[in-house]
Structure formats: C-alpha cells, structure tokens
Amino acid sequence: MARKVYSEEFKKGAVEQVIAQRHTAASVAERLGVGYDTLRKWVELARYNADKSLVPTDLPAEQRIRELEKENARLRTERDILKKAAAYFAKENL
Question: What is the pLDDT of residue 54?
C-alpha cells in the first residue's frame, strides 16, 4: 500500500479545525479521509511548535480561563515528564 503525502496547507487546515475550531480529531480525520493517528501527530507537532498559546482569544473570559488552566496543566505535565526523562538519562551516563 502506497503512503499518502499531504501538502502543508492541507495539514495546517486539518490542525486548525481541531485546535482553533474545536472539532474532535476523530471527526476531522473521518471527514478528511486521514488516519486518526496521523492527524493526532500533526496536532501534537503543531502544539509543540507553537510560539503562543493555542487558546483562542475571542472566547468569553470564564471559558478562556478554563482553557488556559487546561493548557497550563498539560504543559506542567509535559515539563515534569521531560524533567524525569532528563534525570533518568543523566543518571545512566554517570
């Protein structure tokens, strides 16, 4: 089976539907005919490479605060995982 190649514009549009338009990854993947895992990887990569918060600024204040709290929790978890991994690999090299 041949591997599909998607344009950057197509990927950005799919990721935007998940992040900015708040559609589920499963629904976007099904609608666009993309594998769920493929789309999920694109979204994760976009979030990792983002320079700024992914929370839209046009949300009502309470909803924006909830979204920012979720993002903050996710970022703390990622930071903690990276700290543990760095400590583990540093210990291995001693």
Answer: 59
